Structures are given as structure tokens and as C-alpha cells.
Amino acid sequence: MDSRLYEFSLKELSSGIRRVLCQLKMPQFLQRFVLLALLALLITAGASEANAGIYNMQSILATEADEGISGAISGSANWRRGNVDYLFLSATPLARYRVGNHLIIGMMRGDHKTSGGATIISNTLEHLRYRYTISDALLGEVFAQHEFNDVKRLNLRALVGAGPKATLVNGSSYALDVGVSYMLEYQRLQDDEFADAGNTDVQHRNSTYVTGHYQADDRVQLAESVYVQPRLTDASDIRLLSETQLTFKMTKRLSFTSSLTIAYDSRPPDAVKRLDTALSSSISFEL
Asked: Which domain holds residue 166?
């Protein structure tokens, strides 16, 4: 099944659900919440994967949240049968709630990949973040994250963090922001056949990121985010992430994004490579 057919059928399904909710005379904010919940359950059924180590939230937070409840879903699918039996599902539902200077955002990400009946990738990630706007150029944020990653041999990674984010440049078609946070992380590896099986670790890290975007016109945006996360007790233990995104807005609610992600971990678990590179595409639907 081609991913484009899957994504456009999702759009048609959401329109049908909206019509039913309107007939039930639900308030608009409740319609959005119910629609988000239903589509999240649908698109994440049987799907599970996420990036390990660092997950770039800035692309999600770049979209200005409406007052009250809002949300979005992005995802893709690839299904093949015949000479090659292959299934890949990826989904990222998220919800936002804004009241004045307060913003709460929660997201889940899941990827599930099978080939020849065997599971190759099975990962999940959940992220919750609170932001308080102090001024046009400064805000504070607190966040928490949970992750399971079979490829990275992570049975559990849980972290909490807090810090400020400042806007350095804010033009009509471009912006540049920087954020600095303290992060406390707990990690437990899978109980498998490797020498470090079942190891646990508590880490204190700094998380610094720089993110910028350029709005070419009403439909095209180029964005770049770079993260640096050194361990505070050992600066040679460092994680890096660079993500470049090109987004095409097809309609008011529907957009297409291509991303190039490069991630580096100087001290990964045994049998896990230090460098990861990924080129991906996805469809996002704003609720």
C-alpha cells in the first residue's frame, strides 16, 4: 500500500468524523479533542518506534498553537507483498493546550517495521513539555520523556529537564532560537546476550540546542535544529543531533515534510553504532 494513499484516506476519514461530531452538536473544542483521540488510536494501533537519545521537538513547537486545545497527526506507511514481504508503519500524534502565556504539549511517536515475518524495529517514545512565555524573546520550559528502543537495546530511558529558551533573531520570514537546559536521565539496557546486558545508569547532562527556520513563501519552509548534550561529569560522553527539514504546505491543514537526521552518541551500548543517519518523509494533518 502506497503511503500517499494511506495518508489521504486519513484526511477523508477525519472529515467524515468531523461531520458526525457536528451532527451531534458537540462544542468545537470538544470536537477537536475527540477527533485527535480517535485518529491517534487508529494510526498508532500496532505501530511503535522512535528516535533514541535525542528527539527534536522544535519542529513540532515551531507551529503556533491556537488558544485552547489543538493538535496534529503525522505518519507514513509502506506495505509490500510478493518477492519482498515488508511492512513499515510510523505515526506521531500530538496535542496542544494553550491558555495565555501557558502552553502544554504532549506527543507520542511509534515506528513498527517487519520483514519476512520478523520484527526489525519496534520502538516507542512519549514526550510532555510545559512552556511559560516571559516575553517575546524569552520563555521557560520543563519537560519529561520516556523511551523504549529495541534497536538501541534500550529497555527504558526516562528523563526530566528544565531551562530557558531565547529568541536571538526574529524577522518576517526567518528566526533563530537557542535553548539551554539541565537534564536528569535514567537508562536501563535490555537483558540480552551482551556484556553490558541489564546495566543501569543515572546521568546528569546539559542539553543545548540552536534552531532556525526560513519561510520562503506561504507554502515552503526550511528548518534546521542542532542539539548538543554532554554529560556534566564527563564532557567526552556526548550526544549530537542535526535535523534538516523541508516542509511543503499543500492545504491549510495538510503538509508534506522531508527530513535528514544525523545522530551521534560517543558511548552507545555494546553492538550499537555511534553514528545514525536517516532520510524520511511524512504527511502532517493539523486538527
From this structure: 3-286
Residue corresponding to grid cell 567526552: 236
pLDDT digits (tens, 9 = 90+) for 23-36: 556 566 555 655 55
Contact 113, 87 (CB under 8 A): yes
> What is the number of domains present in the chain?
1
Question: How far is residue 243 from each of residues 40, 58, 222, measured CA to CA in Å?
Answer: 25, 10, 11
Dump pLDDT digits (tens) for 156-168. 999 999 999 999 9
N- to C-terminal Cα distance for the chain?
25
**What is the CATH classification number for the domain harbouring 171?**
2.40.160.40
Q: Taking a C-beta distance cutoff of 8 angstroms, is the pair 178, 164 a contact?
A: no
Cell digits of residue 81: 507483498
C-alpha cell belonging to residue 223: 528548518
Phi then psi for residue 162, to 5 deg, are -160, 150
